[in-house]
Specification:
It is built from 10 helices and 8 strands. By secondary structure, the chain is α/β, with parallel strands linked by helices. A 6-stranded mixed β-sheet has the order 3-2-1-4-6-5. Helix 7 (195-208) crosses helix 10.
């Protein structure tokens, strides 16, 4: 892949989160991935249920993905980050077309859906290999990286550069359920889907997986499949209330009601921070 006259990308690092190892992969990238040395990086391993790790690896291998690395890019010292450069170099060595003696430095492109940690990977590699601070801006919502950045050095032995790229979603999402998984993981702005709808799907997923830690966290008596009931308890516990005007036969009065939107946001935030347990949605 050429970007300008002097920039040649030798291989691709595709990126997604451990919450959604399958739903989080953009199928549009597949054609590009097939013609380049490629590694799949599953980030945020601290937040996902890794008891299914071997099952995930076998399913990925059936789909032709053999080079997979599990990471936690926000951890100050993540041993998996130290494995990345040797793994990439081994992949290149096994591809004679891309392994050439005249190569003295290497450039790779990081691709994936929004908000899965692509920029955090670059910063983690710089922190681990160069002992330097971050070079890519990061944030908790999609769309922080808005353009392909210049080459960023992440290693000096060998000399290696990465290109950070904006997250790209497929133009058409296959199913509503895939869309909800992507939304819960923050790849789509919350307000475009609706916090209440996302919270409802999250509650359904947690109950389906038998993960009921939300019951204790929000002082419920038992698991529930009624999202309004759960959000009301969350709002009461966190004192998320709002004043609204009610029209009555004797005039307007102001009453206090639970703020369901704020409660839904806290429920989703707790999931994203791992406070509701280690969850794999796929």
């Amino acid at each position: 892949m050429r970007l300008g006259a002097s920039l040649y990308c030798l291989a691709l690092l595709s990126f997604t989160t451990n919450h959604i190892p399958f739903s989080g992969r953009n199928p549009v990238f597949q054609e590009t991935i097939d013609v380049r040395p490629h590694m799949l990086i599953l980030n945020k391993m601290d937040l996902a249920d890794l008891s299914r790790k071997q099952t995930v690896l076998k399913m990925l291998e059936k789909n032709g993905v053999k080079n997979v690395l599990f990471t936690n890019c926000l951890k100050q010292e993540d041993n998996s980050i130290k494995k990345l450069v040797p793994m990439v170099m081994k992949i290149i060595e096994n591809k004679p077309r891309f392994n050439r003696d005249e190569n003295t430095n290497y450039c790779f492109m990081v691709i994936g859906v929004p908000n899965v940690g692509k920029s955090s990977l670059i910063n983690a590699l710089r922190r681990t290999n160069l002992k330097k601070g971050r070079a890519s801006r990061v944030g908790g919502e999609p769309g922080i990286t808005k353009a392909v950045l210049t080459k960023i050095q992440v290693c000096d032995r060998p000399i290696m550069f990465l290109l950070d790229t904006p997250g790209v979603l497929p133009p058409k999402i296959d199913s509503v359920e895939t869309g909800m998984k992507l939304a819960l993981c923050g790849t789509i702005l919350d307000h475009l889907v609706g916090e209440d709808i996302m919270a409802d799907y999250l509650l359904y997923s947690l109950n389906k997986l038998g993960m009921f830690s939300y019951v204790e966290k929000y002082n419920l008596h038992e698991p529930s499949d009624d999202i309004q009931h759960v959000l009301k308890h969350i709002a009461v516990k966190l004192k998320k209330i709002q004043r609204v005007t009610a029209i009555t036969g004797v005039g307007n009065i102001t009453i206090t009601v639970p703020n369901y939107t704020a409660a839904a946001y806290d429920f989703i935030r707790a999931f994203r921070k791992g406070e509701l347990g280690q969850v794999m949605l796929d």
